């Protein structure tokens, strides 16, 4: 059974197709879902498949399916990890595409997690002033977060995601079978963003996640399809009203993230996975909101219990608040305006609060 | 006296302001035109001025005027010439902007010819997923051609303009005084594109250019303002209906350019200026159209006489037709479809013709 979520962005609208078994088994005959995605990008004569090295077998299955449809395929793999979001890799891919005789009608397929989506998406945005591209996210985090919204880009040595473009894909195709082999920490890490959607905009979804928690621990395909589809729907609703991050609406997606970025910056990137830092960040933001009298303790305890049940960390005691505070001041999103926190007012609703002091943090969190 | 041409691209519309004396003299008090442009990009707290090394004094005048208005200014110069449209320069500018603490509200000012407009425009398009930018073209070619239409980008070693974005400026400000010191060949070269607009879409403009020819040789400010404004109006009309070069309409701007690109590729870049190659290319395209019975000889003789009067070359006899033919086959714009020539049917009208053979060329041009 497959499900399709439509991201509505006027002429840049696109479908996210969620299914199982898309890239498993022999795929001389592509699945209905994959065929639907291929149809979206017709006429398709030349596909540029850019793949994370770790999921090359998925990329090869995709390439075979495309070739079986008479499409010329160029395949390139990229080393796993954030370091690939670099100018060096960008330069290499641009020249590879030229060598492969890519033209304006070629279509880029990004197979991998957020790193590949960001990198290959920007490559697509910038080659020949913009190629069409298809996202094939293989991590849960990429499925529910980075593959929706059109943000693409690379890092400079001194700043993450500072170079890039808003560039929407033609389609996203998600195969929940990809999650079966994802390392446990990486899998659970993706669930943090799922819980986030419930907290910021959908109390009923929080209840549903509590019901589904056991199935999610087992990576049940139906449960996964349901929560991925709903997460994409949530993010799409936010992005629709603030495509280029100009109205401030998109800021609610940063719930837990001001803390998470500071945690990642001080703990050193790579020690905690992004979703783990977000989970701790949501627990901290929740506690801060309780301390400010914005929300009752019980709601935050519910949030934290769900996070814990989903094997996510919520304890911030190992971090020094003053150190986090300093890191927050140099957060890219903070520099642009005053430091604001996205804080919950009830389960399913958040608002942006400015004027928080280190003292407020200490009172809430020590 | 100043004139403003509005480029209509729905929410991406912008004005081109053409004036004299904008950047000459002491500009502690900026001219009305410059003030109008600054107002377009308010709130403006931080300006990133990226300047061709050769026109640094203009950039400094602009910087002083901005600073006098309380705006923080970062200024960077770029070596003159096509080689600056490189990944190396892109990387350098991105990091420079980061060091200068540019944020999403910073505005890029591109001061120079087409190279700077393309490079700084792409830098603006890609930093923080898109900064606003203002074009300050200082060459005639940039004023009448590359500053209108939103094409930005850089070269790879093996392909010109292959990396880039469509990114529209907030405003263009043109100071005709800049042309007073432009080297003669470069100045006349820009006039080739002006004649092109007359040939492809405006017979009355061709007549007007004949009337103004003497004044243009003298670089008369009023004549320049008039022809620059009208050229921008012509290009804007074409771009309006084909912003992202998808409908094929924009192809008429390539009149003379299929030949010109082949001439540039075989003569070696830099021997002939772009406008000189375009002038010879228009003479060749005109002769081909005559030979095919599409237009009368007299119209093409008029075109050629005007080009000659404006000190532009029209003689192709030094080029080997077979060699040009080979170069045309590998033209980037040809690879994407069949080789098509934009040929005149009368003064002020062109159409695209496919199926031309080397034999047709030889018959027309030997």
Characterise the protein shown here.
Two copies of one chain form a homodimer. In chain A, helix 3 packs across helix 4, helix 5 packs parallel to helix 6 and helix 7 packs antiparallel against helix 8. In chain A, the strands form three sheets. Chain A has a seven-stranded mixed β-sheet with strand order 1-2-9-6-5-3-4, with helices on both faces. In chain A, strands 7-8 form a two-stranded antiparallel ribbon. Chain A is built from 14 helices and eleven strands. Chain A is globular. Chain A is 47% helix and 19% strand. The model of chain A has no long low-confidence stretch (mean pLDDT 93). The longest helix of chain A has 20 residues. The first copy, chain A, has 366 residues and is α/β, with parallel strands linked by helices. Chains A and B meet through helix 3, helix 4, strand 7 and strand 8 of A and helix 3, helix 4, strand 7 and strand 8 of B.
For this entry, give a set of tags.
366 residues, alpha/beta, 7-stranded mixed β-sheet, 19% strand, homodimer, 14 helices
Q: What is the overall pLDDT average of chain A?
A: 93
What general outline of chain A do the C-alpha atoms trace? globular
From the alpha carbons, calculate the radius of gyration of chain A and give it in angstroms. Answer: 20 Å
Tell me the major beta sheet of chain A. 7 strands, mixed
Tell me the fraction of residues in β-strands of chain A, as a range: 15-25%
Instruction: Identify the strand order in the major beta sheet of chain A.
Output: 1-2-9-6-5-3-4
Largest interface: A-B, 31 and 31 residues
